[in-house]
Amino acid sequence: VMISAGIMEWKGRIATLMVLTNVTDRKEAEDAVREAKETLEMKVEERTRDLNLLNAELLALSEQKSAFVSSASHELRTPLTSILGFSVLVKKTIQKHLAPLVRADSNLQAKVNTALDNLEIINKEGGRLSRLLNDMLDLSKIESGKVDWKDKQFSIGSVIEIVAAGAAIKLHEKPQVTLTLSIEDAGHTITADRDRIIQVLSNLLDNAIKFTEKGTIFLSTRKKGSGFEIRVTDTGPGLTDKEQRLVFHKYYQAESSQKG
User: Fold this and answer.
1) What pLDDT sits at residue 244?
2) What is residue 260's predicted lDDT score, i.e. its pLDDT?
3) Per-residue pLDDT at 150
4) Could you tell me the mean pLDDT of each successive run of 10 residues in the chain, 260 residues long?
5) Contacts (Cβ under 8 Å, ≥6 apart) of 217
6) pLDDT of the residue at 145
């Protein structure tokens, strides 16, 4: 209780006026506010400590990621360089020493030519893998989530030749599956990132081969309006309606592929 006193004149006499004010509610409210403030300050300090610890952990993880990428870059590039180097060496050896010996035998010459063609595919695919690896291991691109597009002009036929050759090798393990090409205007040129187009088509063909146990895989191209369409179809089980809605989500895998 708060007491206030004062002197005043009342009915011609000097009187003392005392006012009693109940301030219990106000004091309780002030105490509650003070306690809430102190509690809030303690929680802010606690959360600040937690955030500082989390930030330190994230920095440590970032350093570990950088170290891993640097190590992976070295470990992956070294064997790839050896593969590319030996493929070139083997091709030169065959051309110089073996090819002249089989010219009289058309059957053997055809097999040597096939081996040389396969070595050329290894070299081209190894070069493409090297470029993709450089993009993947570029820290600035990983952190920004962006990859540069290297657009240039190239013919449709040159791309189809590479992806079809790669698919043919995988189809040796599936004799009941055949690859049929329907190429319209193979000499038609487009402007795009050639490696990315090969990557997408190779992935589509790989999936088609993986999930087609018997039947035909079709790779077709045709002009469509002002553009050019490249289509991969197969006689496999296909995607469900749910999977089709999710197929372009990042890192999504169809249930059928997860079961496989």
Assistant:
1) 80
2) 36
3) 84
4) 58 65 74 86 88 87 75 75 87 91 91 91 86 70 68 91 87 89 88 89 90 92 87 87 78 55
5) 167, 177, 178, 179, 180, 205, 208, 209, 232, 233, 234, 235
6) 62
Q: CA 14 to CA 7: how far, in whole Å? A: 7
Residues 6 or more apart from 2 whose CB is under 8 A from it? 20, 21, 23
